[in-house]
Amino acid sequence: MAADADDPVYYVISDLHIGGDEQLGEVDFLPELLDFLERLATTGENAELVINGDAFGLWEFTEVAGVAKFDVLTDRYPDLFEQLRETGESIPITLLPGNHDNELAAYDEYVERLAEYNVDLVRAESITRPVGDRTIYFEHGHQRDPNNRFEDFGNPYETPLGYYYNTNVTSRAGRLSGRGRFNWLKDVQAVTPTERVPRWLLSKYFYREMNPLLRYAAIPVLLLFNISVLLAVLAGLDLAGVWTMPVETADALLAQLGLVGEAVHFLLVANAAIAGVLVLAGVPLYFVLRDVGKTVDRFGVFETDLTVDPDEPYAAAAREVFAERPETAVFCYGHTHRPLLKGVDDRVLVNTGTWLKRLHRRDVVAGLLPPVFYPSYQLCAVRIAAEPEGVAVEFERIEKDDPSADEITRTERLLTLGRAPTPTLPDRAVVANAGLESMSDADLESASAPDE
């Protein structure tokens, strides 16, 4: 069937996480969001905007409860709600609750309050929409995450594990972020998976909060740690008289360089001494920590991960939906914050990403220095529409300045030289009656591969 000019076109966004305690209330992408909504208000298409969960960070409000959180939102972001009202006069806006704003499904008042701004709140875990001769299946995706799913959807008193993490960690980070040398702690909500939070905290402490004198004194030791361990071993062999040639040769070469050689000699000796002490202390510490880890594993204290596999649970869920509803062409979700476009059983699995900052881990070139977490914005909307060749799914990039220019120090850039990330969005795909076209499975897998 050929696509008609009046066929519906869907724009899908998710995971805005607007709102929260103190610093979490800053919405860095608000100008871009307002421009996007304003553009939709003037589109000539038969369009609908679907906000596929976690529009608001209601979990991150800890000082107000219930519908009072909505009052805070409307007072804090009047321009946003007025633009929603204006856009909603031109095209339908449908909002699906996520886990962070599950309370939207718990109180009737939210339906009425959002309707005042022309937003249709659907208090359900999933919805479908027609597209040509096929359908699109929408869900936020937290149902597939055992730490964030709700057994009793819409129950305001049900609190999965993720609720405690966000009310005790994320919201507290929002309250404390302004106290740092730099306002970075609020970005904890951008760290995915959450197992990376300890390394991220260590990284930000070392590169942003540590006293600069301590940091620059530690960098040579940690950067040259592997070499320093080797030097410490060679020095030990020299002192024992087992093998003196390497040390004698190095001393002779450095002696020919005068003051420069003396400075290098001092640095190498200091590094070797420190590395030797660390190795001597680290050997017994390693065995202690190893034994503690085995004990913890025996008791199963940390048996449950805080996060889930970013792809496979959703691919499995898509297969189930495609089998039960053969007319479904697209399984669309959010939650994991990772833009993704993947072929599953000749149909498409698509993740709409997030409008929050994303963090990309990069290890340093050498040594024991903490990794560097490069920030980026991958603001986008997924456009799904019927076309003559089938159902087309594509990402529309929304431009925003690269935050790394202000947030990554020269030291971090130097230590990760050549390793800076270049985030990309997946390419376009088309689901035809005969199956997936325009992109091969290999292309889809490559386009959806998450950044480390």
UniProtKB/TrEMBL annotation:
The lineage of its organism: Archaea, Methanobacteriati, Methanobacteriota, Stenosarchaea group, Halobacteria. Keywords: Cell inner membrane, Cell membrane, Manganese, Membrane, Metal-binding, Transmembrane, Transmembrane helix. The chain crosses the membrane at residues 213-243, 263-289. PANTHER family: UDP-2,3-DIACYLGLUCOSAMINE HYDROLASE-RELATED (PTHR34990). One of its GO terms (molecular function) is UDP-2,3-diacylglucosamine hydrolase activity. It comes from Halopiger xanaduensis (strain DSM 18323 / JCM 14033 / SH-6). One of its GO terms (biological process) is lipid A biosynthetic process. One of its GO terms (cellular component) is membrane. It comes from the Archaea. Residues 11-157 form the Calcineurin-like phosphoesterase domain. This is Metallophosphoesterase. Pfam families: Metallophos. The keyword ATP-binding does not apply.
